Amino acid sequence: MYRYTTRTGPINGLIMELDIQQFDYIPLTPTAGVKVLLHPDSETPFPEDGGLIVGPGFVTSIAATKVESRRQAFPEGSCVKDTDSKESAYNTIFSSYGHSYSDNACKKTCYQKKVFKSCNCCDTDYPCLKKVLLDDMDVLDDTAQGKNAPYIPICNSSNVESMKCTSQVEKSFWTEDLGCASQCPPACDQIRYSTVISTGVWPSTHFIRHFIKKINESSSYRNTSNDYIANNFLKIQIYYEVLNYVLIETYPAYDWNKLLSDIGGQLGLWLGCSLLTVIEISQLGLEILVSLTRKLIRIRRAVSNYDDNGNSN
């Protein structure tokens, strides 16, 4: 369900009051709350890699500002265009959901391929898209019939060898030994949201009675206590802080137009200087020659006059 807004502020955003029902948590759960991750609807979210943890007993206001990044593709840059990723090596296991390319989705796809190649099965944490996983490999065993297999086997959590294999691949993935980071450049067009977070105690001491009365009147709750409210209920407000957005765009610092312009300018400068220098040197040489010629003529005239005067005497 989409909700469009043309105004800023908490009352014009998304407001949710949630009951996390801690009584359903397993004993190994260390944190109570929900994970909130802001992302474009065309991009696969990965809450395990980011997001905000919102705990019970508080109202959390998240003021968001859209940040759009535009990078240069080859040859100026190394980003991946979403249109080029559909039929290329950057096709991800999330493409079947209509999601666009992202470097994080590419890394998860790389991890799933490594699990599939090393363990002959598919990690249940991520999709098993047969077209992508079998695109450049044929590593399934005979029971799965290789590339003609109607299904991809799932890694069995009760199989010790299978879990040991996937654990080793996962460890190599997090230590960057698989090389997935170097194989997955960022997307050329990317949208992120910068956030400003503020919290407050909710519900307040005076409001909690009214809140308990309201939820007790519903069919799902009966005789709700103050402790249950404080330990299980939370409120989230997500809204735009401003309606404008931040655009971060990269562009070539030196392109062909500038190169040709600089070459033309340098040629014009140096050729112009050379021509002027030749003219100036020629003019200087001519002036020196004229000056010497005039001086020589004056000397000859002086000598000639001296000889004439001497002979006449």
Concise synopsis of the structure shown:
The chain is of the alpha/beta class. The chain contains eight helices and seven strands. Strands 1, 4, 5, 6 and 7 form a five-stranded mixed β-sheet that branches. The protein has a two-stranded antiparallel ribbon with strand order 2-3.
Describe it.
InterPro entries: ENaC (IPR001873). One of its GO terms (molecular function) is ligand-gated sodium channel activity. It is found in: Membrane. Its main location: membrane. Helix 2 runs antiparallel to helix 4 (160-174). By secondary structure, this protein is of the alpha/beta class. Strands 1, 4, 5, 6 and 7 form a 5-stranded mixed sheet that branches. It is elongated and about 145 Å long. The chain has helices at 82-85, 103-119, 130-133, 160-174, 180-183, 208-216, 226-232, 256-312; strands spanning 14-19, 34-36, 52-54, 58-70, 189-201, 233-240, 246-249.
